Amino acid sequence: MKKYFISLLLTCTTSISFSQIHEIGFFLGGSNYIGDVGNTNYINPNEVGGGLIYKYNLNPRIALRGTFTYIPISGNDTKASSPYRKQRGYSFTNTIHEFAAGIEFNFFEYNIREHKTSFTPYILAEIAVFNYKTIDYITTNNRSIFENTFSYSIPMGLGVKGRLADNLAYAIESGIRLTFVDNLDYTTDKIARLNFAGTGNDHYIFTGISLVYTFGRPPCYAPRE
């Protein structure tokens, strides 16, 4: 019986020391695009976006995460540093709806319930599916006909997160989405008048701050006799 209670106490103590395992919240921030139109600064937010986030903490160092993000993007050649782009004068706007899932790795052990471990930098790696508009064709009266399409990307980023209250945490994060398409700006080799850009893939970046509510504890199991 004594060994039973000692084992149960150690199991519960270990579980409780790992704080809550679920995090759910929202984030807001700015987005920018890197491609064949406009400037090429990597972190230069010019649109406002946001979304929802859920995390499942496997342990104090690793969390699984899923996000939905609304990401407007735009580019304008008049704001580019390249004289060629300034003279060309092309501009566009598009909207990306992104679903992503991946892993978050903390540099330090993270436990929102303990002040000594309630702050850490982290890195993230995800796989994302996103929806955006492309130009299907241009009519004889010069009207662009759009269609929705899907593609995928590899989001990677850096961030820092910390405790605001017992069950409330924040994070500041910036991540680049490496895509496998070159038509986020509507340039395409399928339409002659829009075939004027490079062949490199387009990318987009989101930088913002999130607020999450943490809840749930790892179960405390009693060993069977």
UniProtKB/TrEMBL annotation:
<protein>
    <submittedName>
        <fullName>Outer membrane protein with beta-barrel domain</fullName>
    </submittedName>
</protein>
<dbReference type="Pfam" id="PF19573">
    <property type="entry name" value="DUF6089"/>
</dbReference>
<dbReference type="InterPro" id="IPR045743">
    <property type="entry name" value="DUF6089"/>
</dbReference>
<feature type="domain" description="DUF6089">
    <location>
        <begin position="2"/>
        <end position="223"/>
    </location>
</feature>
<dbReference type="InterPro" id="IPR011250">
    <property type="entry name" value="OMP/PagP_B-barrel"/>
</dbReference>
